[in-house]
Amino acid sequence: MISHHNGNNPFLFFHGSYKKPLTKRNPFPLSPKVPSFPSSTATPVLQVSRVHFIHSHFSAKRLSRQVKGKVEDVLLDYLHSSRGYSFVDAEFISKNSPSFVQGLVSEFHGQDDDVATCLRKWLWYNPINEFEPFFESLGISPHELPLFLPRGMMYLSDDHVMLANFHALSNYGVPRNRVGKIYREAKEVFGYPNGLLLSKFRGYENLGLSRSMVIKLVVCCPSLLVGETSVELAMVLDWLKKIDIGHDWIGNYMSCLKTYDPRRMLDAMQFFHEVGYTEEQMHNFFKENPALLLEGLEKKLYVFLGLAFKLGLNRNVIYSCFVEYPHILTTKCAKNLLGVIGFLHYLGMDIDDISRILSNHMHLLSSHPLKGPKAVCSQLKLRKADLCQIIKDDPLKLISLASKLKQNSNLQLLRDDPSKHLGKTTFLLKLGYAENSEEMAKAVKRFRGRGDQLQERFDCLVEAGLDYNIALKMIKCAPMILNQKKVVIQKKIDFLRNILGYPLDCVVAFPAYLCYDLERIMLRFSMYAWVAERKAAKPMMALSTILASSDDKFVKYIVNAHPEGPAIWDGLKKLLLKDKSQLFP
């Protein structure tokens, strides 16, 4: 049965019981510019596949847009009219298999005007292997095709089980251009009996996941569709609930260009829990570093953390360092820190001094691979004990004397001018917090970043035109303002004044404006501006009314204030999602 197009279904396949009878007589003569073909008692198959197909991808002359369009139209007509594909399927395959199209054209050496005519005649008598353009349209490259083409089959419609599972993915909403990744990494999924794939989707929905989240997960983690419902994923979701992170949150940071493993996610969460981090610390840590949760910890980082704890480094010190300098969590930085420990141990430095140096300079040391200690001692003509004492007296000498990287003036500036690396406590004292007070302790946890970074962010508020004392009061009311990068704060202020036309004083009454993400600000104010422009809402409405109200209230009082409002609101949300998908494929 041929499937019919459904506008709500972005991913359709046909069952294709119809096949055009294939003649066994020799093809009639074509243009002299077209090569002749030997007759055969078997049904001839157009040999643009495998080696020739891949070769043509690299060596054939680039097609002009006009010729490419003509060949695509011929292929579409062949698949739709001769092979029984639905028009939507035939069009998608013909438009999304450029290497196959190139291979078809490379069989002909006539003028551009002759190609479409010659190819159409060719296809009357020479059926193609339909799996080739089909798989290419799903994202499987020509290089990989020989690994995936089924043996002894050339008609896609003959593989009913595979088609049924493609339909199951389609009907659930998996984007067609992502199916190739699932086929590549979990081919057994396409041999499932009827209904099994759908039951797996339902199993993940029963864990509390939305359909869109399930789709994102199976595209990024195709292995989730193999075997039983992933116990590891269920445990990851339980952990997210414990540390107050929503289930769908991780989907916002997943890239379809990568593959993720729930077991690695679970290992990362359990590790931080087992070494003593609180649920609040884990919440903040993973919120700031989603890649660490999604991609898990590398082996070298586990080794470094294990050694660090054995050396007696304080867990809170390590936590603060990771939050302020997330680059330390990379394999490269972990390897560098392991090198530091090995270097200092070789010199005979005691554990307390190694711990002190790492605690105070971890972020700098993590960026420098070190030479071997023997080579450094030889080069400097120093005994181990002498070099050890030099580094104890000035730990940053370890970088200047032993780093493999070329030195720059930044390190010297940090050493000569401590104000360039202002401490967080010093900054908070300037804001008026009492030293060693309970209020100061809470503030240290609330404000993220180095002291000099926090100062820079605070200064940008004053530079924007706010009175210094007023800016202080705002920060104490909404500390999260300074947990954003300076450029983000500047964008929000610029949007408020230059796009919305609001005076900067509006944020004094509602400092939380600067804490909302730009997506929410742009979406809600775009809708409000449209309604206000049509006199359906009062001008210059309070920022808190627009941003802080719940979704239901916003729709009720702003969106529904104009008859066309709901349609405009839906359009704005779709536009935002489209923009996000382009930035985050």
UniProtKB/TrEMBL annotation:
Source species, domain of life: Eukaryota
One Gene Ontology MF term: nucleic acid binding
Keyword Transcription: yes
InterPro entries according to UniProt: MTERF, MTERF_sf
One GO-annotated biological process of the protein: DNA-templated transcription termination
Pfam families assigned to the protein according to its UniProt record, in alphabetical order: mTERF
UniProt keywords, alphabetically: Transcription, Transcription regulation, Transcription termination, Transit peptide
Family, per entry: Belongs to the mTERF family.
Name listed for the protein in its UniProt record: Mitochodrial transcription termination factor
Organism of provenance: Vigna unguiculata
